[in-house]
Amino acid sequence: AAAGAAPRDLEGLRVVVTAGGTREPIDPVRFIGNRSSGRQGIAVALAAADRGADVRLIAAHVDDGVLAEASSRAGISVERAGTAVELGERVAGAAEAADVVVMAAAVADYRVAEVSPRKRTKETAPDGGITLDLIENEDLLAGLVGRRRDGQTVVGFAAETPGDGETLLERGRRKAARKGADLLAVNEVGWSKGFESDDNALTILDAAGGVVATRNGTKRQVADALWDAVVALRQKE
Ligand code: CTP
Ligand code: CA
């Protein structure tokens, strides 16, 4: 639907959306990151605001031009989080008062065990290569699902690179079962697929792995399909 023609079916709902990729510092000048631009998550936040929700957008590293549109929009408050740990603190606090939480952020699975306070230098490193020790980050989505209140809806995203005889749907179903989120939005990514693009293709699964909807289109159209699925799910409960 065109902006302005959006249904106001999220009126009165408090929504938290995370978007973008976390950056895990190695030292003051380097980090481990990922290719998420935050476009899909920001589209989810914009769609929710247009449909009447009160939106808190927690943005990790995102495309600044895309974020600017959300920052200037009534109904959306934007806060920033750099690392997975920071994002975790913010989303846990925000979720306490939220009706719906959408984890669209690409949260780093690992962080650097010992962040160097000064720039690492080759002078003090062994010849031929170094090893970085990584520690697993907390699974924020799993934490939200574990603390979910009655009437609260928790939505996850999964970007997958299917292969080795496993389809996108099979991988998504296993993840849906493992995560326990009310909905899991699965999309395929690859070297030249999914990132920085204006379009996306989503398969939306319920907690049991059942296909609730599939949608190909702009990230905004896909975001609206996700909110349609959230509204339908909340009406059933
Ligand atoms: N997620 C999270 N905390 C993490 C990692 C992921 O909350 N430490 C969330 C993401 O925001 C997303 C969902 O979990 O909504 C699925 O992320 P994904 O990376 O696909 O799942 P993982 O369990 O990390 O599995 P994988 O090994 O495939 O990366
Ligand atoms: Ca992951």
UniProtKB/TrEMBL annotation:
Domain of life of the native organism: Bacteria
Keyword Heme: no
GO molecular function: phosphopantothenate--cysteine ligase activity; phosphopantothenoylcysteine decarboxylase activity
Pathway field: Cofactor biosynthesis; coenzyme A biosynthesis; CoA from (R)-pantothenate: step 2/5; Cofactor biosynthesis; coenzyme A biosynthesis; CoA from (R)-pantothenate: step 3/5
DNA/pantothenate metabolism flavoprotein C-terminal domain sequence ranges: 10-232
Cofactor (UniProt): FMN; Mg(2+)
Chain residues that bind CTP: 109, 119, 157, 175, 179
Catalysed reactions listed for this entry: (R)-4'-phosphopantothenate + L-cysteine + CTP = N-[(R)-4-phosphopantothenoyl]-L-cysteine + CMP + diphosphate + H(+); N-[(R)-4-phosphopantothenoyl]-L-cysteine + H(+) = (R)-4'-phosphopantetheine + CO2
Keyword line: Decarboxylase, Flavoprotein, FMN, Ligase, Lyase, Magnesium, Metal-binding, Multifunctional enzyme
Cofactor binding mode and count: Binds 1 FMN per subunit.
Ranges where the record places region Phosphopantothenate--cysteine ligase: 15-237
Annotated EC: 4.1.1.36, 6.3.2.5
Function of the protein: Catalyzes two sequential steps in the biosynthesis of coenzyme A. In the first step cysteine is conjugated to 4'-phosphopantothenate to form 4-phosphopantothenoylcysteine. In the second step the latter compound is decarboxylated to form 4'-phosphopantotheine. Catalyzes two steps in the biosynthesis of coenzyme A. In the first step cysteine is conjugated to 4'-phosphopantothenate to form 4-phosphopantothenoylcysteine, in the latter compound is decarboxylated to form 4'-phosphopantotheine.
Family the UniProt entry places it in: In the N-terminal section; belongs to the HFCD (homo-oligomeric flavin containing Cys decarboxylase) superfamily. In the C-terminal section; belongs to the PPC synthetase family.
Protein name listed in UniProt: Coenzyme A biosynthesis bifunctional protein CoaBC
Organism: Microbacterium salsuginis
Boundaries of the shown chain within the full protein: 171 to 407 of 407
